[in-house]
Design a protein that fits this description.
Length: about 475
């Protein structure tokens, strides 16, 4: 074995390498590029929490990458792997993601270095509330300052604790509910936030596959129907990406990987049944009709059309990129393919749908939730009945003029006024379609643009630099 060890880029260095590749295609002055790239504020904290009879010192972070728009926005991660570099990389990605999908926020991210599985619900509540108190003390949370959301290891439950803690310290603040998004629907949340990232992943893959020429170049037929998919990570993002791609896109899920191992089934794995099986048995292994692959990491080498890494960063590296047989990698997670691995994949002709675009559905619907909280009214409240009455009149007129009457079921469909969930899905779909088309247009402009990620960065940098110029900071 060779004595020499290759030094790999850290996650933040990998994001910055991608940034630099895109910056080289722009005319943005170096000083402005430096300002965009740097993390504006890094808050590294440690606080004691009493667990059982002992005090534990918990390490945590909140990073605000860019203040070109306020509030800053980004999820909170609970994981024993959390570190400063990771949170900085994730915060930077949030700035580029928000710019790309026209969500008017700066980027931020939070991380608490704990393994949530090792704590009871009460202990997690204590840790979350204490972390929130630290954020309040340093002005790192607030509807107009910095607005957290769920990420790896957290969900609506933690967001409800954050809101409650914030309200205790900000009694009477009328917009307090907008201090955090991803809240439970009955606690100032929005319909459709839980599924939003996975649904956005589906819309993004579908939009890529809607272009005949691009599919042909990959040796594929257009459309998502019948395409084989492998998913890594059955958490929030992975489970909804798989379920919606299967139910609404007719994709065939042939492989799934989780902490306990990887399963494969050529005929397809029913996502709803698999999720129930894992809930009942605590594992995906042994799912009827599936084969367990020898190693958990074998998911990368499964022969399929689309690989969907939906767990963590640095999963596809220079070590395993050569094994990939898929033609598309759909980055549902943040940073699953390292910048250096992407070089290898590009040479192999593999298309990467980049994280900053593909998983932007979460922050898009978080933006809708924030707007809902600030307007103090659910979407659809004003117009639903009006639409329903207009459509009913239209159908009745049609029936009178033609002498034909539509059945009750058709009438219900035709006269349905938009509910909150309809509007949220419509806004999300529109966002994902428009953002992909902007990336594609830039990518097609110059053959020297390396890939869709570089094109996505170019679109984001153009918008962020425009904001700085408008602010008068870089005239
Ligand atoms: P989650 O905690 O709900 O789920 C992650 C799942 O991945 C867990 O079930 C975990 O067991 C599994 N996992 C971890 N390591 C694994 C491994 N080595 N092999 C196989 N499975 C593994 O987290 P999530 O919210 O779904 O986030 C997943 C990714 O998506 C993260 O990169 C996150 O930053 C990104 N993301 C999340 C959101 C969101 O709205 N939650 C939005 C945008 C991006």
């Amino acid at each position: 074995m060779s004595e020499t060890t290759t030094k790999h880029l850290s996650f933040f260095e990998s994001v910055n390498r991608n940034f630099d590749m895109a910056a080289a295609h722009t005319n943005i002055p170096k000083g402005l590029l430096d300002q965009i790239k740097i993390c504006n504020a890094v808050y590294e904290m440690a606080f004691p929490v009493k667990i059982g009879d002992e005090y534990q010192v918990i390490e945590a972070f909140r990073v605000q990458h860019s203040h070109h728009r306020l509030p800053t926005k980004g999820g909170i991660r609970f994981s024993h792997l959390v570190n400063r570099d990771e949170v900085m990389a994730l915060a930077a990605l949030m700035s580029y993601k928000c710019a790309l999908v026209d969500v008017p926020f700066g980027g931020a991210k939070g991380g608490v270095k704990i393994s949530p599985r090792k704590y009871t619900e009460q202990e997690l509540e204590k840790i979350t509330r204490r972390y929130t108190t630290e954020l309040i003390r340093k002005n790192f949370i607030g509807p107009g300052l910095d607005v957290p959301a769920p990420d790896y290891g957290t969900g609506s439950r933690e967001m409800a604790w954050i809101l409650d803690t914030y309200q205790v310290f900000n009694h009477g603040e009328i917009d307090a509910a907008a201090c955090v998004t991803g809240k439970p629907e009955n606690q100032n949340g929005i319909n459709g936030r839980t599924e939003a990232t996975g649904r956005g992943v589906f819309y993004g893959i579908r939009q890529f596959l809607s272009y005949n020429d691009d599919c042909k170049a990959l040796g594929m037929s257009p459309g998502i129907a019948g395409k084989t998919m492998v998913i890594q990570g059955l958490g929030n993002v992975g489970s909804y990406s798989g379920t919606i791609s299967q139910d609404e896109g007719d994709a065939l899920i042939v492989g799934v990987s989780e902490i306990e191992g990887t399963i494969y089934c050529q005929k397809g794995i029913d996502m709803a049944k698999l999720l129930k099986y894992r809930k009942d048995n605590g594992s995906i292994l042994g799912f009827p009709g599936s084969t367990t692959l020898p190693e958990r990491t074998d998911w990368v080498a499964i022969d399929c059309d689309i690989l969907v890494p939906a767990a963590l960063e640095n999963q596809i590296t220079t070590e395993n990129a050569g094994k990939i047989k898929a033609r598309i990698i759909a980055e549902a997670a943040n940073g699953p393919v390292t910048s250096e691995a992407a070089d290898i994949l590009r040479k192999k002709g593999v298309v990467i749908l980049p994280d900053m675009y593909l998983n932007a559905g979460g922050v898009t619907v978080s933006y809708f939730e924030w707007l809902k909280n600030l307007s103090h009214m659910r979407f659809g409240r004003m117009e639903k009945r009006y639409q329903q009455n207009s459509l009913t009149n239209l159908v009745s007129t049609f029936e009178r003029l033609t002498g034909h009457s539509v059945g009750m079921k058709e009438r219900d469909i035709l006269t349905h006024g938009a509910d909150e969930i309809d509007l949220v899905r419509s806004g999300l779909e529109d966002t994902m379609v428009n953002a992909y088309d902007q990336i594609r247009e830039v990518y097609k402009q110059k053959s020297s643009i390396e890939d869709l990620r570089t094109a996505a960065f170019i679109v984001a940098l153009d918008k962020i630099s425009g904001d700085y110029v408008r602010l008068g900071i870089f005239p």
